[in-house]
């Protein structure tokens, strides 16, 4: 079994958990509130901005020209997506590059970003790529799941979990090429390095669930502070 196959086998329970999450179910049934949607939209666009730096690190640490070209292509798509997304946002939301950089980052978003950023210091594609590829894979798989459900076809719900097409799917899509790179790099890695890469992938899958959960509950730093300092005696997680 290749490293990527091992990753995907162990990630299956995380995928099922994500499918069952009330936020994902709320997308299917159009039951999310405007406040839940706004929280997710604001935090997600800030998260996508953070991924620009992760992709840059993949470019910088590529071990082949083909890898660098693939990551450059993915970066072009990321920046184009962010540009178009910002143009659609109202004035009360991040609507240009400067306001995007100033978006308040809430707890789970920060934990996820820090998890990914921590891999950059390894200067290893094998360690950096799984932190990023897991979210891509999870989003695509959730899109497949949602497409098979009797979902409500109205906006903004209809546009959720629709990333796909030739850029991401199939043998030449980003997802498969990312896994090919992971397997290529794993050939020269130690068992300990391979296990570390797998655990990074799985942690990203877990944090995807918590990202939905934070949006569903609209968890902020104020909530964490109140829970800690006002003696509620219970965790928000």
UniProtKB/TrEMBL annotation:
<comment type="similarity">
    <text>Belongs to the TenA family.</text>
</comment>
<dbReference type="GO" id="GO:0009228">
    <property type="term" value="P:thiamine biosynthetic process"/>
</dbReference>
<dbReference type="GO" id="GO:0009229">
    <property type="term" value="P:thiamine diphosphate biosynthetic process"/>
</dbReference>
<protein>
    <recommendedName>
        <fullName>Aminopyrimidine aminohydrolase</fullName>
        <ecNumber>3.5.99.2</ecNumber>
    </recommendedName>
</protein>
<dbReference type="GO" id="GO:0050334">
    <property type="term" value="F:thiaminase activity"/>
</dbReference>
<feature type="domain" description="Thiaminase-2/PQQC">
    <location>
        <begin position="20"/>
        <end position="217"/>
    </location>
</feature>
<comment type="pathway">
    <text>Cofactor biosynthesis; thiamine diphosphate biosynthesis.</text>
</comment>
<keyword id="KW-0378">Hydrolase</keyword>
<dbReference type="InterPro" id="IPR016084">
    <property type="entry name" value="Haem_Oase-like_multi-hlx"/>
</dbReference>
<comment type="subunit">
    <text>Homotetramer.</text>
</comment>
<dbReference type="InterPro" id="IPR004305">
    <property type="entry name" value="Thiaminase-2/PQQC"/>
</dbReference>
<keyword id="KW-0784">Thiamine biosynthesis</keyword>
<dbReference type="Pfam" id="PF03070">
    <property type="entry name" value="TENA_THI-4"/>
</dbReference>
């Amino acid at each position: 079994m290749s490293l990527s196959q091992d990753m995907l086998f162990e990630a299956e329970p995380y995928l099922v958990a994500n499918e069952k999450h009330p936020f994902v179910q709320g997308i299917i049934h159009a039951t999310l509130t405007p406040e839940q949607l706004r929280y997710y939209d604001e935090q997600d666009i800030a998260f996508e901005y953070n991924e620009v730096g992760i992709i840059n690190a993949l470019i910088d640490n590529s071990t082949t020209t083909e890898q660098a070209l693939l990551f450059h292509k993915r970066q072009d798509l990321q920046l184009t997506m962010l540009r178009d997304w910002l143009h659609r946002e109202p004035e009360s939301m991040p609507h240009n590059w400067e306001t995007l950089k100033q978006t308040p980052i809430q707890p789970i978003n920060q934990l996820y970003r820090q998890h990914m950023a921590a891999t950059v210091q390894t200067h290893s594609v094998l360690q950096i790529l799984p932190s990023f590829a897991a979210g891509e894979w999870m989003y695509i798989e959730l899109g497949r799941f949602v497409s098979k459900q009797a979902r409500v076809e109205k906006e903004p719900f209809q546009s959720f979990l629709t990333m796909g097409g030739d850029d991401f799917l199939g043998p030449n899509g980003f997802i498969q090429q990312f896994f090919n790179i992971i397997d290529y790099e794993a050939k020269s890695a130690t068992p300990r390095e391979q296990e570390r890469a797998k655990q990074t992938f799985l942690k990203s899958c877990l944090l995807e669930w918590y990202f939905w959960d934070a949006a569903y509950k609209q968890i902020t730093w104020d909530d964490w502070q109140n829970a800690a300092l006002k003696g509620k005696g219970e965790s928000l997680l």
